[in-house]
Amino acid sequence: MKDAVFLRACRREPTPYTPVWLMRQAGRYMPEYRALRERVPFLTLCKSPELAAQVTVEAVERLGVDAAIIFADILLLLEPMGVGLEFSASDGPVIRRPLRSGADVDRLQENHPAETVPFVFEAVRRARASLASHIPLIGFSGAPFTLASYLIEGGSSRHYLATKRFMYTDPGAWHALMDRLVRVIVPYVNGQIAAGAQAVQLFDSWVGCLSPADYRTFLLPHMKTLFRAIAPGTPVIHFGTETAGLLECMAEAGGDVIGVDWRIDLDAAWQRVGFDRAVQGNLDPAVLFAPRAELRRQVARVLAAAAGRPGHIFNLGHGILPHTPVENVVALVEMVHEMSAQGATHQAAARDAPREEGS
Ligand code: CP3
């Protein structure tokens, strides 16, 4: 397992081909998933370890990806805080009692994830047991800013105005909230590692709405504390979107692998992150709706931007969209494997070929 291609890439070791997995690889674009969801509500599915493990493993087998991600949701950790989490079919996630003040932060319930979300750890154990031994399992958590945005906005948001107003108006309560979230994320992530996850990803999906200066003031110290507390030896992927202005901050915060979305070229992003770090990304999920030739061209472009450097994990810049044709996703995975293996062969041949004088 230690030598799994995905884990080697996390450690920036050379690989025979570029590993690929896809955010939301188990989801509504898959007919098997939709069939299951007709019988089982989303939260029930997340809380049924046997079903969650099954969905996790099925996606890997269907797609031929190099890693599994445990089927769960970043918001599961918020429900036991007593804020009233619901998933409605039309509006997405809703927090019934969003935070409005410092007093609301103090009222948040704080219990150990082993007591509040034991089903996630059990799903990790079961998924690990039924996955092929060479396929690493990725555990995950939301990062503090993204979780706070749901707690404060009460759901998805466009401008994150309530979140920012809270942050600017009552920095003391904001920092207290960050502290609390870090205190619950650490055992949540480490618990997944203990249960059998080989890597973890922190989803800071909405952090890109912050200025770099605000990131440093309101977030960076908490992110550093969080990264330092994650069990050493397990690669951590640090993901966000619209982060072209924040990549240096995110790299400084921590993570062995920095997730990159498609709004920046991968080579430019890697340069800013630093080549001493691995990167993950960064195909636009919408390209999975393109004709095959365009998909191929865009895969080639991402691979060319990575330039065969060790430490690239191929992924989308964000999750697979609903209605994505499954056959295109399968084709993408095949293309990444095939094209990157050819590239690796070319590079090895170029390395091994006798150099011409003066070249
Ligand atoms: O990636 C995977 O395959 C693992 C499963 C996974 C889900 N959510 C399942 C899910 C993961 C890693 C997540 C993370 C997550 N959840 C994030 C961070 C990643 C991102 O997309 O930025 C966020 C912001 C959430 C919160 C969330 N959960 C939203 C906004 C929604 C509604 C929007 C949507 O896509 O439906 C969910 C629901 C959700 N989480 C679904 C799935 C498969 C769809 C629920 C359904 O079956 O109807």
Overview of this protein structure:
The chain has a single domain, classed as TIM Barrel (Alpha-Beta Barrel). The chain has helices at 5-10, 31-39, 42-46, 49-63, 102-107, 113-116, 118-130, 144-153, 161-169, 171-195, 212-218, 220-229, 247-253, 266-273, 292-306, 326-352, and strands spanning 68-69, 85-88, 92-95, 137-142, 199-204, 236-240, 257-259, 278-283, 312-316. Strand 2 (85-88) and strand 3 form a beta hairpin. Helix 4 crosses helix 7, helix 8 crosses helix 9 (161-169) and helix 8 (144-153) packs across helix 10 (171-195). The mean pLDDT is 96. The strands form 2 sheets. The chain has a 7-stranded parallel sheet with strand order 1-4-5-6-7-8-9. The protein has 359 residues and is α/β, with parallel strands linked by helices. Coproporphyrinogen III (CP3) is lined by residues 23-28, 37, 42, 69, 71-75, 87, 92-93, 140, 156, 203, 205, 318-319.
**SS-derived structural category:** alpha/beta
Bound molecules: coproporphyrinogen III
Listing every helix as H and every strand as E from the N terminus to the C terminus, the arrangement reads HHHHEEEHHHEHHHEHHEHEHEHEH
Q: Radius of gyration over alpha carbons?
A: 20 Å
> Would you state the CATH class?
Alpha Beta
